[in-house]
Amino acid sequence: MTRRIAFAAGLGLLFAAAFLFGAFAADPLRAVRKAGEAVFRASSGHEELYAARDGTPLHAFVLGPLSAGRPVVLLHGLGADAGYWAVTARFLAARGRTVIVPDAPGSGASGTPLSPEGLALPARVAAVESMATALGLSSFDLVGHSLGGLTAGLYALEHPRRVRRLVLVDAAGFSHFDAAEDERLHALGAPRDRAEARRLVDLLFFRKPLPAIGAVADALARNYLSPNVRTTVAVAGQADLLLGREGELPEGTALIWGREETFLPLPDARAAVGRIRGGRLFVVTGVGHDTPLEAPRAFQEALLKALGG
Questions:
Q1: Is 146 helix (H, G, I), strand (E, B) or coil?
Q2: Which of 10, 183, 213, 239 lies 20 to 30 A from 230 at CA?
Q3: Confidence at residue 234, expressed as pLDDT on a 0 to 100 scale
């Protein structure tokens, strides 16, 4: 009987593994998002619904009590959703921090605005303020990656009393691209086939968190060619929106950057941090643009230091 039970259990695990592999092969990014959602729920997270100023329904995961004295808000970048931060959120929650991870307009479980302007940077910034108002947050620590980092920086400039500590991770906003470079990056961000998608993977990741198989490249291409992502790129605004305003960012603003970053170069971050009052730069070796995914432990250590423990 024991052998039969063990055989049945093993067979069940085999079928489950085959199902999960099939789901991953069919749509890797969707499988990753579902895994992120499972991490939030396993960490006793709950969901909050609220509305953008144009009425678009918005969504966030919350780990911990909203009454906490210093919650941490994590903003994801282009083409991602709240699931990007699942492992980081669990790490912070395990250390007693309340963590709030919103889906930007048009991403994850948030609705898609009726107007393209609802995906532009001002709307992304306004969505953070809608979240803060709806959840009753008087102030919080704010962390943003890539386009989410640019959003976080612009939000801190617009609402300085809300932001206690600002952490920008491989963030857009500090780099200036000439016309030729801007055109090249836009072309890379709109892959037309698997080969171009693999070049995008190489641009984003130095240490790839997922195997660079065809299914992953195809999924990334589909994701970046989706209407929401393409519209966001078209209306997001200039890449250098924080240049010249570094001195206005909150004192002690921290930057976390991958040493092998080629999309938003490390020298730009070094120049920016020198213009921030009390600015701090944490460089993570052996990673590119997606430091939180490429080296989670090293990133978490840097993030704790950036947040002050």
A1: coil
A2: 213
A3: 67
Instruction: State the Cα–Cα distance between residues 216 and 220, nearest whole angstrom.
Output: 6
Please give the DSSP secondary-structure letter assigned to residue 243: T
Asked if 258 and 270 touch (Cβ cutoff 8 Å), the reply is no
Q: Where are the alpha helices (DSSP H) in the chain?
A: 2-26, 28-42, 86-94, 121-134, 147-158, 179-188, 194-204, 214-224, 227-235, 266-273, 291-294, 296-307
Return the structure tokens found at 120: 């532009």
Q: How far, in Å, CA of 206 to CA of 212, rounded?
A: 12
Q: Which long-range contacts (CB under 8 A, 24 or more apart) does 228-231 make?
A: 228/106, 228/107, 228/112, 228/119, 229/78, 229/79, 230/190, 231/106, 231/116, 231/119
Which residues does the chain have with pLDDT short of 50? 1-26
- Integer Cα distance of 169 and 255 in angstroms: 6
What type of residue is 60? A
Please state the separation of Cα 213 from the chain's center in Å: 23
Residues 6+ away with beta carbon under 8 Å from 82: 36, 40, 59, 60, 61, 74, 76, 101, 102, 103, 107, 108, 109
Which SS3 state, helix, strand or coil, does residue 289 take? coil
d(CA 177, CA 112): 29
User: Tell me, what DSSP letter sits at residue 280?
Assistant: E
Residue indicated by tokens 């941490």: 72
**Tokens in use for 170?**
């491989």
Q: Where are the domains of the chain?
A: 28-307
Count the residues in the chain: 309
pLDDT value of position 54: 93
Tokens at 39, concatenated: 């991490």
**Cβ partners under 8 Å of residue 211, min gap 6:** none
> Tokens for 46?
């709950």
The answer to whether the CB of 120 falls within 8 A of the CB of 105 is no
